[in-house]
Amino acid sequence: MKKFGVFIIVFVASVVAFNVWKPQLGSYLLTQQLSSQAEVSRIMAQKDKGINNSNLAEFNNEAVDYVAQKDNLLAQISKAEADEAATDTTQVLGESDRWIEINLTQQRLYAWEGNNQVYNFLVSTGKWAPTPVGDYKVWIKLASTTMAGGSKALGTYYYLPNVPCTMYFYRGYGIHGAYWHNNFGQPMSHGCVNMRPSEACTLFNWSSVGIPVKIHY
What we know:
The chain is of the alpha+beta class. The protein has a single domain, classed as L,D-transpeptidase catalytic domain-like. About 35% of the residues lie in helices and about 30% in strands. It has helices at about 1-35, 35-45, 65-85, 195-205; strands at about 60, 60-65, 100-105, 110-115, 115-120, 135, 140-150, 160-170, 175, 195, 210-215. The strands form two sheets. Strands 1, 2, 7, 8, 9 and 10 form a six-stranded mixed sheet that branches. It is globular. The model is unreliable at about 10-20 (pLDDT under 50).
């Protein structure tokens, strides 16, 4: 009987410890995933796939009302693709004086041309895993991409088709439109920089591969 009591105490302590460490473990695993070369390969494999026909979307294990937004999202993606095709791409890889600043404290993104501010947008950065701080450059632009990862067990699973106007700046970390929440100005992401889809597409067509991205507090 005494052994059974000890077992119960150990079991309860283990459950409590797991729940205490669950957020930290989830954050660590998300960071490892987004920072991995495997994530870069997954992104590259999507480069020419275009629209995802799935009608299902999940964020943090919860279904997203995606179907109701799908037509509008696809229209924004199609317009971004057309605008991108018509854009002068001669100023790339650092030849332009355009750059992007993300202030994590203010939860704002500023787009600059030299010292002149062009855009000022509310964003949502990392809540369940941190947004990396530092100086980066956009390494790929995708008008539409599917984001998937996280953990069902830890409550961080996500499957998000047709994420609009995505610009990856460090491995699996990107600036992109987010249709699964409308709480911009508050941290809401797994480490990426969330924007309203229409504003993300505006920034997408203003930017080019190689544009500097500076992230700070």
